[in-house]
Write a structure and sequence with these properties.
The complex is a heterodimer. By secondary structure, chain A is of the alpha+beta class. Chain A has helices spanning 8-22, 48-52, 135-140, 164-168, 181-188, 213-218, 268-271, 278-282, 379-385; strands spanning 65-66, 81-85, 103-109, 120-125, 131-134, 144-151, 171-180, 196-200, 208-212, 221-226, 229-230, 240-242, 257-261, 290-295, 306-315, 321-327, 335-336, 338-339, 349-357, 362-370, 406-408, 414-416. Helices cover 36% and strands 2% of the residues of chain B. Chain B is globular. The chains are: A alpha+beta, B mainly alpha.
Chain lengths: 419, 188
């Protein structure tokens, strides 16, 4: 099930350690164990670095890949990072490990190497008291810790995509800790006429986006923590703006400045969102309800007929996931899936469905409904809404949240149902 | 259910209160000096109120386009490089929205062009252009897209007044409200 691309450096390091004679217990133990008992594994000798900061098992080789396949590579020849997709096919639970969290940057960017002692966040514009916060200042303030997904607007399934990493890997979910932006804005005091804000990063392009002040006051987080530690550099160390449920580009990394303004500021990132159709424009910002089966998914192989727990992820920019349904007969019947744990607002939610595969060719799909009652659509439904023919060239407007079919062949191989 | 009904009310109170002058609760953080705000604030919005003094024309911009090496990524004529197109391949007979996402053509405000060149160009030397150079390069991009004339002077007064080809012909975002579907009736 694991990716075929090993984390080479890690593998070599561990491999060398093992070859170097540190393996214990490789000899047949002279004990009274009966023949046929499971063999003892080799042992990993304590290593100073591994005690200080542990690595995963050398047998776990799941890695991120550049997105989309055949597109602009990350890193490129200059070391710029653009789009990198998370290995959802190997994910369990709802947290994406920070090392595997998807990455995207404005235009393709170097990752800034920021000294947190030097880093400052300035809030200014239409406020009574402009303020500059150091990292120490921010950590003194009341904090929140919340699970939130981030998804790139470019996270769309294509016919060429083979695995769920290629179709859906530009979404990830982490536990974020920080100060509510509303707390900081109340500290500054919003002036009348404050209706939008611009958030800006520290990377070389100083990526900036306009967002409604209502969102700032609702649930945005100025986050310094991620999955129990400091936010990672690829995710915006030392400070990232979380804009729960909005497209990934709004979650400004390496956050250095927030300007309160009285209008849509038409930054470069904003102009990229422009459309002439008000209905398409309305699909920007907030992400719709979306789900995908991660096991079994494209490129995986079922061992044979029999029991499998189908497993997947569901999320929505509109709030918490209320229900997930799974079909194992190409959409003819839909069955309620089991939701694992308590769904959180704007967070990945793990679902499972108990399935006995009869060994026959079929197609499996999932769809979700969020707390607003929004239902994840199929490509056919979306094409009908826009009154367009459902052919290979049909491009879902806005962020593509359509149902992903996985085809199960008679030999148990799994492939992209959209291909 | 009760809580859900109360939420819009609570939200209205929250945003309403924030509009009033209010004392800080925690007293954490320090006020920036006016110089610090000026130095950090590189945003230039549609009114152009943040634009610095300076001036430039397309003629000057054409020279800078060569001397700063812009063509290395964007092509000698703004077409054909590895970086985004600076003018469309399709001619003016093709409808604007079909001519591609060209910054100096499709942005509703010339300030967006100025702001982006100023903050993000040239690659690896971002933030090194003088205000005059940014005005001149902005003028050059607008000129090669037939938005302004070659000898037109752009400065803090004239730049925000440039009439962009897209005019008013783009969709405004609907007002965003928490706990509200993104597009009513979508997909059904």
């Amino acid at each position: 099930m694991g990716s075929k691309r090993p984390a080479r450096r890690e593998f070599l390091r561990n491999g060398a350690a093992l070859a170097g004679g540190f393996t214990l217990g490789a000899v047949t133990p002279a004990t009274g164990q009966a023949p046929g008992a499971p063999a003892s594994p080799p042992m990993i000798k304590g290593d100073k670095d591994q005690i200080a900061y542990g690595d995963r098992s050398r047998h776990v080789t799941s890695v991120r890949i550049s997105h989309p396949v055949g597109g602009r590579p990350s890193p490129d020849n200059f070391g710029l990072v653009f789009h990198v997709a998370a290995p959802l096919q190997d994910s369990v639970g709802v947290i994406t490990p920070s090392s595997l969290h998807y990455v995207a940057t404005t235009r393709g960017s170097f990752i800034p190497d920021i000294d947190p002692q030097e880093h400052r966040l300035m809030i200014h514009g239409l406020v009574d008291r402009p303020l500059i916060f150091s990292m120490e200042d921010l950590k003194r303030l009341p904090s929140v810790t919340r699970l939130h997904f981030i998804e790139c607007a470019g996270n769309r399934s294509s016919r060429r995509a083979k695995t769920v990493q290629e179709t859906h890997g530009m979404t990830s979910c982490a536990e974020w800790t920080g100060v509510l932006l509303s707390t900081l804005l109340k500290e500054c005091g919003l002036k009348g006429g404050a209706s939008w804000f611009v958030a800006e990063g520290t990377e070389e392009v100083k990526g900036a986006s306009s967002m409604p002040i209502a969102k700032a006051m609702d649930d945005c987080i100025v986050a310094y923590g991620m999955n129990g530690e400091a936010v990672r550099p690829q995710q915006g160390f030392p400070l990232r703006l979380m804009v729960p449920g909005f497209e990934g580009i709004f979650h400004t990394k390496w956050l250095r400045r927030i300007k309160i303004v009285d209008r849509y500021y038409m930054n470069y990132n904003d102009y990229g969102h422009l459309d002439r159709d008000p209905k398409v424009a309305a699909l920007d910002y907030q992400i719709g309800p979306k789900s995908v089966i991660t096991f079994p998914s494209g490129g995986q192989q079922l061992a044979g007929r029999g029991f499998y727990e189908i497993s997947g992820l569901a999320w929505s920019g509109g709030g918490a996931i209320r229900t997930v349904e799974v079909s194992t007969d190409a959409g003819r019947h839909w069955n309620r899936a089991e939701i694992k744990g308590t769904p959180q607002r704007m967070a990945h939610t793990r679902f499972g469905y108990q399935w006995n595969w009869d060994g026959k060719e079929t197609e499996i799909l999932s769809r979700c409904t969020d707390e607003l009652g929004q239902v994840q659509p199929s490509r056919a439904q979306v094409a009908k809404y826009w009154n367009r023919p459902l052919d290979a060239s049909f491009n879902v407007p806005g962020l593509d949240n359509t149902i992903q079919p996985w085809r199960i062949a008679g030999d148990g191989s799994v492939s992209n149902g959209n291909a | 259910m009760g809580t859900r009904k109360l939420l819009p009310l609570a939200f209205a109170l929250l945003t309403g209160v924030s509009a009033l002058a209010q004392a800080p609760t925690y007293g954490v953080g320090r006020p920036p000096t006016p110089e610090e705000i000026r130095a950090w604030d590189i945003s230039v919005g549609p009114t152009g109120e943040e634009l610095p003094p300076g001036r430039g024309t397309a003629k000057e911009g054409a020279l800078l386009y060569r001397s700063k090496g812009c063509g290395g990524c964007h092509g000698a004529q703004g077409i054909g490089g590895t970086a985004p197109l600076l003018k469309p391949k399709a001619g003016p007979d093709v409808e604007l929205w079909a001519r591609g996402r060209i910054l100096a053509l499709r942005s509703p405000f010339a300030t967006t062009v100025w702001d982006y060149i100023n903050r993000a160009m040239p690659l690896n030397r971002e933030g090194t252009l003088t205000a005059d150079e940014v005005y001149a390069l902005t003028a050059y991009l607008l000129f090669i897209n037939d938005v302004i004339k070659e000898d037109e002077v752009l400065d803090a007064q004239s730049l925000p007044k440039v009439k962009m080809p897209i005019g008013d012909n783009y969709a405004r975002l609907p007002e965003w409200k928490p706990r509200t579907p993104r597009l009513k009736g979508y997909p059904y």
